[in-house]
Amino acid sequence: MLRPLLAAAVMVCLVGGSAEAARCGGDFNSFIASMAAEAQAAGVSAAVTSAAFSGITPDAAVLAFDRRQRYTFNKSFEQYVSTRVGPGRINGGRALLQRHAALLSRIEQQFGVPRQILVAIWGLESDFGKGDMGKLPVIRTLATLAHDCRRTELFQGELLAALKIVQRGDLPLRDLIGAYAGEIGQTQFLPSSYIKYGVDFDGDGHVDLRHSVADVLASTANLLHSNGFKMGQPYGEGSANFEAMREWNRAVVYRKTIGYFADRLVGQ
Q1: Residue 158 catalytic?
Q2: Which of 116, 155, 161, 244 could tie 229 with a disulfide, CB 3.0–4.6 Å?
Q3: Does the reported pTM lie above 0.70?
Q4: Tens digits of per-residue pLDDT, 186-195?
Q5: Residue from 38, 125, 183, 247 carrying the catalytic annotation
C-alpha cells in the first residue's frame, strides 16, 4: 500500500510519536539509541527494541529506491492497466471470489465494502498473496528512512508503529518482512495503517496481515470503510467512493485500475 508520497504524514501522530522527533542524520547508532528510548517511552519493551535494533545498519539500496519511486505512476491508465490486469489475474480473482464467498459475505456485512474491490486490491498488491510481498527487514528499512532527513518524522512514526506490531504480538520479528518503504503483508499496509486499521477477523488474537486471508481482507475493508467507502454506491472516477480510496492510493491511475479490475471480476 505504498502511496505516491507515502502520503499522509498525519499518520505519525497516530502511533504515539513524541512531540520532538529524534534528530535525523549524524551518527546512525546514536539515532537508533534515541529511537529505542522513544519507543520504550511509548510502551514498547526494552526486550523488543533490543532484539529489533541488534546489529542494525543503514540500507543504501532502500535509500536509492526511495529517491526514484516518485516516477511509479507516470504511465497512462491504458498503459498501466495493461500490465496489471490480464486474463490470468482476472480468472484467479474470480476463483477466489468463489472460494472465499462466505468470508467475503461476512466482511461485506460488517464493513460495507464490496468483495470485488477487496479482491482487486488483493490481486494488485500481491497477486492474492502469492506474489512479491517484499523481502526486506521492515525495522532496518524504516530505520534507514527515518535516519534520512528528507521525511524523518513520517518514517520515525512508521518505525514506532512497526515496533508496536511486534510488541502487540501480531508478528514476530522474523516475519516482519516487507517492501522498500516498510509495507507489510498481502495488501501491503504501512505499519501505521496496520496499527490503525488492522482487524483480527479470524479470532486468533493477532492481526496477521502476512498469513491470514481473513485478517487481510477484513483489514483492507476496514481501512476503506473508515475513510467513507459506501456499499452499493459507484466507485468510478469522480464518485465519493473513488475519493474514499485516496487513503489506499492517491494516484488516480491506480484507483481507476482497482475499479476496472473489480468490474472485470464480476463480469462488467
Answers
A1: no
A2: 244
A3: yes
A4: 999 999 999 9
A5: 125
